[in-house]
Design goal:
The complex is a heterotetramer of chains A (165), B (217), C (451) and D (924). With 217 residues, chain B is mostly helical. Chain B has eleven helices and no strands. The longest helix of chain B is centred in the N-terminal third of the chain and has 26 residues. Helices cover 72% and strands 0% of the residues of chain C. The radius of gyration of chain C is 23 Å and the shape is globular. The chains are: A alpha+beta (165), B mainly alpha (217), C mainly alpha (451), D alpha/beta (924). The interface between A and C is large, with 62 and 62 residues. Bound molecules: iron/sulfur cluster (3 copies) and FE3-S4 cluster. The site of one iron/sulfur cluster has 14 residues of chain D, from helix 22.
């Protein structure tokens, strides 16, 4: 197995390169870019929504159960089920659960933490967080890799590097 | 050598993350569980006393009633411990020279009280009242367990607030006929009046027994 | 809004001629530089000294009980709550800039968001300590959490203080997560720029292995947008709830329905002032003028003017309602507030928060940095005085005339307060030194977008 | 509340002996606990042999009598687990009628005062008992030679027949010996006046139950006059027309406000010259039917219109001639036998004490005194400086003081013999009306000490007396064993009140003329309302409670009139120098609203230099001014001290009137519904619903309730420093509202305690449920749940919550074992407040429940209610329309404080309704 990395100076070139590699089905393709290029298609917002709803209803239920059933107390003559007063905590709980779920969801979805990846071995790869737009092809097939080099030649990659995987 | 980390770091990072979460959860769990353990509540741990007094012997063996020694239990908040004089009603006749009884004899002779260590100990801010419980048919056993089986006295119930509240929310099933209050090992029999009847007979229900003012002041 | 900001006469949000590589290198270099600036060391030493004496003050209060403070009967709250509300207000500025203006997509936000968020995190931390410290029995603070206990008891969910506790807890946690989440790509950038092994490992661990892969960016963007969308209402709710801490009471001057929005205005007012106050010297000291341009300064100046007007409106309503309600207690309280022992506090509040910022109507004045520093410092102090007025004068002059009293802070009050200032700057300066002060990846986007 | 009979077969000796044993035990554990107030001794100590009638957790009550400053007041001491914890008035005793004053309430603290732990000493060096006995034997030998010519006894007024008998025995054994009396603040003018009027020492006893009109002239009727508790009770009974059929009217002319004046319908500030005019005008009008001028004209008109119902009372500052004139006026108004009675004084051999002391000092200075025995008097501190008592004392070869705690005198004498506390001793005392009470010891002396009955016989015989035997013997003729037991258990000897004396007014009395006072600033010296002549200075409860009229605590400032303050530009706490005759004194000043323009009042009782850790150095010593005459000079020194004080507010505010209401007769409206508006929309309310009503017509602001609450509820003392930040802990405070010009304010007094709001604002804001409602309508404060957020206090519109800023209870020099075991001792960082005496309710509740079928708890009396001499409080079940409290709440005067906040308080007030004379402007 090996990774073949192409670094481009412009995102347009990268996008074209990635498209070509994918169309050819040469192996697993992944991009690494200094700025986000892709967007949308994430399921995490739905997770956040669900967690938020759950956090809010959970908090609301907790308060209701505690004051109505578990430990009813006469506080200032107010009714046990003073639902308007339960809203603030429900809201905060919902928001907090959303944030926490979002961060956790992201870690899971992005498979983080992942301190090591084979592409790290590439000397030039660090420019992925600076100015170069990388596309990495992962394949065990030397022919496929060679084909890829040829395929992307016209896009003038700034760097090409191959590392073992 | 461009990579900063080795492949092993991936596993390590995940383990650290999961371990951290697990440790946090475990800590919380422990924090929740600890006050409920018998160890923390001292349930079943005998307390060292100046005289190794055995309820097993005196109650189960000799058949002495609780009220013989804890005379105030029916009329006062505190049950009270027997004055040395009570011990000496017998121990001036039996076991007169036993070494273990030396503190009792000394107390009697020097007129200094025996300092018994508390076994059942509520915090100062909790006000318990024996007489009312006895009057309403709550057996000693309910809170002190099988005293008659204790060679050395130990706490038998956790005595947490939750313990008190469990009964105060619904005392009925734990009530006994008045005569059986000091009886150890008592069981509901066919002749025992049902909980509702006992509640009614004792006129329980007029109070909200879960009010803080019942126990705290 | 966008229109007026993209007004051509106004300088651009980033100096012309910057490239991705250049911005990345410049900002990274600040965090990765070998030695440290002298001003930094001086500031840091001062902050740590303040922090240390603050820790001592906290320990002293813990050992002696809160009698060491000036809190008395009937002014039960005093400094700890004044400072709490003040800090949490300052914290709001950061969240507003990074979350709220993210949602409305204004481009000048980019260079400011990191500084603002860092400010939020540490101001919120300072704020979060007070509600715990100020308790009579701080070691039992966890009783405010709803957790199953052997007593079978729950918190009192109807109490604004409980809401407050929940809100602060949520806000501090969420702010830290939001801040860290926003840092991830930059931590990766630093990891990749670092040359020494130790530094690489340091940032490498913090970056969690973020590399900017397509999968990462895809989720990252979506999540960031949603988090920002959560943080914006959260910051509003937090300050509304802080307002309810007072409005939920019967106490004269507190029992007012306008308090929640009023507290949001006040919070943002001090928040923007604090951002301005920190950004002006920082851009000079760190040479950030290319990124935080005159444009940013101008925008902040205008924002400050806007919030000053909002706050001014609240003050007018405050005075109006004191009389409109027709309650003797409210009227007498208000008269005491404007003419009693603490009258200077009230008038200073008006001058510093409302009158002084009116200078910002003039663009030329907005361009004067010393003046801006002065106005923002004034607003920061003015907002502190405003809270002093609220927390002290109301219980001091409540419904029952026999219990009208006095309040005076002690040296321990001040000491703890300056201790939190120390805590804030210690944390802030550490971040300035170790983390990118401007969101690098967003700058890269900006540079790219402008080209 | 009843006095429980003494337990046991033989009520005489055994129970006491038994109690002694329990207490001996307690003293041991007290000593243990005393060294470490924080640490708890958790061991259980059963007695070796169970005393009958005493059980763990049990309650017993025994009668006793307190005789502060020559005035006897019956009390009942409550013991818990065999230990005295609370003092309450004895309803059987005429001077108490069940009430106590602040000083009586605080006596229990003195009992446990560690400062009392002093040893027998000779010139400050501790001595063994035997050395004293030898010394006394040597003295006796000396007396035998000259019949005791060198022996002098110095006591306060003696109202104890047994003590009188002991003194008589000494005087009989040594005919050469002399007995002198000195009370600290003697009432010489009163005695002298009575002698001028009736030709012999008599006591003129006011009977307020029959007095519909009262004119007080610098009157101390409700403060220090003998029988003041009783007077307060009957005076108050005539104030609220919805509580009684009669209605009285009170006039007061006075140099500085008094409790009577503040209570009164018409209060007239009068300096010495105006007072002179008033007395002369009064006499002229009543005795000679002339028409006087000014304020007194309308008053005398009213007095004369009500013959047999009017009473004039002159305070002890009025000169003897004026006193005599007042007696003549009262006789002329037909009050004899109705509004007042003339009896033999309860004091044995009353004398003009200033003369008595002067004679003693002269003898001492001349070296005629070889042995001076001082009992229960502190002349080194209290004697007028001009007499030179201390210097003369130094010339006495042998002096001996029997005192229950070290003081200035015990420091100056040769022998200091620690005395038992009054509550630890046998004793007897005659009340102001002659009724006898016998006191039994409540406990074995905690710190040792001797009884005077043990000591005095040693002056003439070999054997120390036995206190019990001595007192028993005094009563042997009058009481057989049964009657004796009865008297001990009731606390009074039935039917022992003095009969009316058939002595006639001397005709000359009507023609006396008091000397005309000089013009200029006049000086008055008044005892501090709590500290007396200084004897209570060591009592922290008394020091800390804001004084009834000045509201000052922890200080005895010089009281100046608002006019003087304005003229000299003085503010409260500015230090002034007073010069009078040859003496000067510096003290901080305090502006007293309503004080006559040209009057300066020096408050005695402060500035003691040997009063234990609490009292030493508190306040300013004004004794140098005593005995000086003439006008006084006042100068500011430029110094300033901060003075701690209680609540005082502007009563003229619309807001104040929502809290402390006055009503005019016309405003009274019958309540729409007689049923009190209960708020039980929440289910689960108990059958009993507690509530309280406080009658503002009754309260005289005497502070008894404040200290009663403190004693009952383990309320800690915080000290002056903390009080300056208003961190005092009193659960009950007396608010003052001054309305009108500061020169002649009308003062409202309002006891303010937790109102137990049904819609409690404090509960809603507590985040941890530490303050909630129970089913019986109490606003509970669960100390162990409170984390100290203090929002509840901010949100309590009545500001009745008190926060423990520090560990105050721990810092008190009071052994933990002396606190009320039925009430938690609150630690630092928690909120506390009035609980409606929850422990008393709980006791009643348990008693009712153990008693069986639905026995409702009845007769719960709160501590403040029990103490109050004027019966201002009514407490009970508001769900029962027939209860006293329900009836009070249904009365037309009833209102809720700050009603418009809709907190629905369970405490309500009855508005003050004055009964002004239409002929006078009420601000007069
Ligand atoms: S209410 Fe209190 S202050 Fe008023 S008269 Fe009664 S005891 Fe005295
Ligand atoms: S008076 Fe104050 S403390 Fe008492 S119930 Fe009302 S609000 Fe609460
Ligand atoms: S009712 Fe009891 S607790 Fe309340 S003020 Fe009176 S004495 Fe104090
Ligand atoms: S608000 Fe609650 S926590 Fe304590 S101080 Fe008041 S009861």
């Amino acid at each position: 197995m090996a990774h073949l990395l192409f670094g481009f100076a412009s995102p347009e070139a990268l996008q074209e390169a990635a498209r070509r590699l994918r169309v050819e089905r040469l192996g697993a393709v992944e991009t690494y870019t200094p700025v986000p290029l892709t967007g949308g298609g994430s399921w995490i917002p739905w997770l956040i929504l669900a967690a938020g709803m759950l956090g809010a209803t959970g908090a609301f239920l907790l308060q209701s159960v505690a004051t109505v059933w578990s430990d009813p107390l006469n506080v200032g003559g107010r009714p046990d089920f003073s639902w308007p007063a339960f809203m603030p905590m429900a809201l905060e709980s919902g928001l907090l659960c959303g944030v926490v779920a979002g961060v956790i969801g992201f870690l899971v979805a992005a498979r983080l933490p992942m301190p090591y990846r084979p592409v790290d071995e590439a000397e030039t790869f660090r420019r992925a967080s600076r100015d170069l737009f990388f596309v990495a092809l992962r394949s065990g097939n030397a022919a496929a890799l060679a084909h890829a080099r040829a395929l992307l030649h016209d896009l003038r990659p700034a760097v090409i590097e191959e590392v073992a995987a | 050598m461009a990579a900063i980390f080795t492949p092993g770091a991936n596993l390590a990072a995940k383990l650290v993350l999961i371990g951290g979460v697990a440790a946090g959860a475990g800590g919380l769990g422990w924090w929740w569980l600890w006050p409920r353990t018998n160890y923390a509540r001292r349930v079943g741990f005998p307390v060292e006393q100046p005289v190794p007094f055995s309820h097993e012997h005196h109650v189960a063996g000799l058949g002495i009633d609780c009220r013989f020694c804890h005379a105030a239990v029916e009329s006062s908040a505190a049950a009270g411990l027997p004055p040395t004089y009570t011990c000496m009603t017998c121990h001036s006749q039996v076991w007169t020279n036993a070494a273990v009884l030396a503190p009792v004899r000394q107390s009697f002779a020097r007129h200094r009280p025996i300092a018994w260590q508390r076994v059942t100990d509520l915090p100062d801010y909790v006000y318990f009242h024996h007489a009312i419980h006895i009057a309403k048919g709550v057996g000693c056993e309910e809170c002190h367990g099988r005293i008659d089986r204790m060679a050395l006295t130990a706490k038998a119930r956790p005595m947490t607030m939750g313990f008190c509240l469990d009964c105060h929310r619904d005392p009925g099933p734990r009530l006994r006929p008045r005569a059986a209050v000091t009886e150890m090992g008592w069981r509901r029999g066919p002749a025992t009046p049902p909980a509702q009847a006992l509640l009614a007979a004792y006129h329980i229900g007029a109070r909200r027994l879960t009010d803080c003012s019942i126990c705290h002041r | 809004m966008t229109e007026s900001i993209s007004d051509l006469a106004i300088p651009p949000v980033i100096a012309p001629g910057e490239t991705e590589a250049a911005v990345t290198d410049q900002i990274s270099a600040l965090a990765l530089r070998e030695g440290t600036w002298r001003w930094w060391w001086i500031g840091f030493a001062l902050s740590v000294a303040l922090l240390v004496q603050g820790i001592f003050a906290a320990c002293w209060a813990f050992a002696q009980g809160i009698r060491v403070w000036g809190n008395d009967w009937p002014v039960m709250w005093g400094f700890p709550i004044i400072n709490y509300v003040w800090w949490i207000g300052i914290a709001s500025g950061g969240t507003f800039i990074s979350a709220f203006f993210f949602l409305v997509r204004v481009e000048w936000r980019t260079s400011l968001s990191r500084i603002a968020e860092t400010l939020t995190v540490f101001a919120a931390a300072c704020a979060g300590l007070y509600p715990i410290f100020h308790l009579g029995r701080p070691w039992l603070f966890y009783w405010l959490f709803p957790y199953p206990n052997t007593m079978g008891l729950w918190p009192q969910f109807r109490s604004p203080l409980f809401w407050d506790f929940a809100a602060i807890f949520a806000y501090v946690t969420a702010s830290v997560l939001f801040w860290y989440f926003g840092l991830l790509p930059d931590l990766a950038t630093l990891r990749d720029r670092a040359s020494r092994r130790g530094t690489q490992v340091f940032y490498g661990v913090l970056a969690l292995g973020f590399r900017g892969s397509g999968r990462e960016w895809g989720h990252y963007r979506a999540v960031y947008a949603v988090l920002a969308a959560i943080m914006a209402p959260m910051v509003v709710s937090v300050h509304s709830i802080v307002g309810l801490d007072f409005a939920g009471a019967l106490t004269t001057g507190w029992h007012s329905t306008q308090f929640p929005p009023f507290f949001v205005f006040g919070a943002v007012h001090s928040g923007f002032a604090a951002v301005l106050f920190l950004v002006l010297p920082l851009r000079r000291l760190l040479g950030l003028e290319p990124f935080i341009t005159g444009r940013h300064v101008d925008v902040l100046g205008r924002l400050l003017l806007t919030t000053a007007l909002c706050v001014g409106y609240s003050y007018i309503m405050d005075a109006f309602f004191a009389f409109y309600r027709g309650e003797a207690a409210e009227r007498l309280w208000f008269l005491d507030r404007v003419s009693g022992v603490h009258a200077s506090v009230y008038w200073a509040t008006l001058v510093l928060n409302v009158a002084l910022p009116q200078m910002l109507w003039w663009r030329s004045l907005r361009a004067s940095q010393p003046l801006l520093m002065l106005v923002s410092a004034g607003v920061i102090a003015g907002m502190w005085l405003e809270r002093y007025g609220i927390v002290v004068t109301s219980p001091q002059h409540d419904h029952i005339p026999s219990a009208w009293g006095a309040y005076a802070a002690t040296v321990w009050d001040w000491s703890l307060f300056t201790g939190t200032v120390g805590l804030f700057f210690t944390g802030f300066l550490l971040c300035v030194r170790l983390l990118p002060v401007i969101s690098i990846f967003e700058l890269r986007e900006l540079v790219r977008g402008q080209r | 509340m009843t006095v429980r009979d003494r337990p046991g077969r033989d009520a005489l000796a055994p129970p006491l002996a038994q109690r002694r044993r329990v207490l001996g035990l307690m003293a041991a554990s007290m000593a243990l606990a005393g060294c470490d107030p924080g640490g708890e001794d958790r061991a259980l100590l059963p007695p070796v042999r169970q005393p009958p009638g005493i059980q763990p957790g049990g309650v017993n009550r025994y009668a006793s009598v307190l005789t502060a400053g020559g005035e006897a007041s019956g009390v009942v001491v409550t013991h818990r687990s065999g230990r005295p914890v609370k003092i309450e008035g004895n309803p059987n005793h005429p001077a108490s009628l069940g009430a106590t004053d602040a000083v009586g309430q605080a006596a229990i603290l003195d009992l446990y005062d560690p400062w009392r732990a002093a040893s027998l000493s000779r010139q400050g060096v501790p001595q063994a008992e035997g050395v004293l006995l030898e010394a006394l034997a040597a003295l006796r030998t000396g007396f035998a030679a000259d019949h005791g010519a060198g022996l002098r006894l110095l006591t306060g007024s003696v109202v104890s027949p047994s003590l009188a008998r002991a003194i008589d025995a000494v005087l009989a054994a040594w005919p050469g010996a002399r007995w002198h009396q000195w009370d600290g603040i003697p009432r010489d003018n009163v005695l002298h006046g009575a002698m001028l009027a009736y030709g012999q020492p008599v006591a003129v006893v006011p009977r307020l139950e029959a007095a519909g009109l009262v004119l007080g002239l610098d009157s101390d009727l409700l403060e220090t006059a003998p029988g003041h508790l009783r007077h307060a009770r009957f005076l108050a009974a005539g104030r609220n027309p919805t509580r009684a059929d009669t209605r009285n009217r009170i006039y007061a002319a006075e140099a500085t406000p008094t409790l009577l004046g503040v209570r009164g319908d018409h209060r007239h500030p009068a300096g010495p010259q105006e007072m002179h005019r008033i007395v002369m005008g009064l006499a002229a009008s009543v005795l000679r039917n002339e028409r006087p001028e000014g304020w007194i004209a309308a008053v005398t008109g009213d007095l004369k219109a009500h013959p047999g119902r009017a009473l004039v009372h002159a305070g002890p500052d009025l000169p003897a001639e004026a006193q005599a004139l007042v007696h003549a006026v009262n006789e002329a108004l037909g009050g004899r036998g109705r509004t007042f009675e003339v009896i033999d004084p309860p004091q044995r051999d009353p004398v003009l004490q200033e003369d008595s002391l002067r004679a003693l000092v002269a003898d001492m200075a001349d070296g005629r005194v070889r042995v001076l025995v001082i009992l229960g008097s502190n002349p080194v501190f209290t004697a007028p400086a001009s007499l030179g008592f201390a210097a003369a004392l130094a010339r006495v070869p042998s002096s001996l003081a029997l005192a229950s705690a070290p003081d200035e005198t015990t420091d100056a004498v040769t022998w200091f013999v620690p005395a038992v506390h009054e509550l630890e001793d046998w004793g007897d005392a005659l009340a102001f009306d002659g009724t006898a009470a016998i006191a039994q010891p409540q406990l074995l002396p905690l710190q040792g000490g001797r009884s005077p009955f043990e000591l005095l016989p040693l002056l003439y015989g070999f054997t120390a007396g036995d206190a019990r035997a001595w007192v028993r013997d005094t009563w042997r003729d009058r009481l057989d064993d049964t009657a004796w037991r009865e008297a001990l258990s009731r606390g009074v000897v039935p039917g022992s009140a003095a009969p009316a004396l058939p002595v006639a007014l001397r005709a000359e009395a009507a023609t006396l003329a008091p000397p005309a006072p000089p013009s200029g600033l006049a000086l008055r010296i008044r005892p501090d309302s709590h500290l007396g002549d200084g004897r209570h200075a060591g009592n922290a409860w008394l020091q800390e409670a804001p004084r009834p009229l000045t509201r000052v605590a922890w200080e005895t400032p010089v009281l100046i009139s608002p006019q003087i303050a304005a003229r000299e530009r003085l503010a409260n706490g500015d230090v002034v120098r007073l010069a009078c005759g040859t003496a000067t004194v510096t003290a901080p000043c305090w502006i007293m609203p309503g004080q006559a323009a040209e009057v300066v009042v020096a408050v005695a009782g402060g500035g003691r230099w040997q009063a234990g850790p609490v009292g030493t150095g508190v306040g300013s010593d004004v004794t140098p001014l005593r005995g000086q005459s003439g006008v006084v000079g006042l100068r500011r020194t430029g110094d300033h001290v901060a003075i701690a004080c209680g609540t005082r507010a502007d009563g003229g505010l619309e807001l104040s009137r929502d809290v402390a209401k006055r009503m005019a007769a016309a405003q009274q409206q019958p309540k729409p519904s007689p049923q009190p508006s209960l708020y039980p929309p929440r289910s689960g309310g108990g059958a009993v619903q507690w509530g309280m009503s406080i009658d503002l017509n009754a309260c005289i602001g005497c502070n008894a309730c404040v200290i009663a609450c403190q004693a009952e509820n383990n309320v800690p003392v915080v000290g002056c420093e903390e009080m300056l930040r208003h961190r005092e802990m009193h659960w009950l405070r007396i608010d003052h509202y001054d309305e009108g010009p500061v020169e002649t304010p009308r003062t409202m007094l309002q006891p303010m305690l937790c109102q137990h709001c049904e819609q409690a604002p404090c509960e809603i804001v507590c985040p941890v449920n530490a303050t909630v409602h129970d089913a019986e309508g109490l606003n509970l404060q669960v100390y162990n749940r409170c984390v100290g957020t203090r929002f509840c206090s901010n949100n309590c519109p009545y500001k009745v919550r008190r926060f423990n800023f520090g560990a105050y209870a721990r810092e008190e020099s009071r052994p933990p074992a002396t606190r009320n075991p039925e009430v938690s001792v609150r630690g630092r960082g928690v909120m506390e407040k009035c609980s409606f005496c929850l422990q008393r309710i709980a006791e009643a509740r348990v008693a009712a429940d153990t008693a069986g079928p639905a026995a409702a708890e009845a007769g719960v009396v709160t501590a403040c209610q029990a103490a109050c001499p004027t019966r201002a409080f009514s407490f009970g079940n508001v769900a029962d329309p027939d209860s006293e409290v329900s009836r009070r709440k249904a009365a037309p005067l009833s209102y809720a404080a700050l009603e418009k906040l809709s907190t629905s308080p369970r405490v309500s007030y009855e508005a003050r309704l004055d009964n002004p004379n239409p002929a006078l402007d009420q601000d007069d």
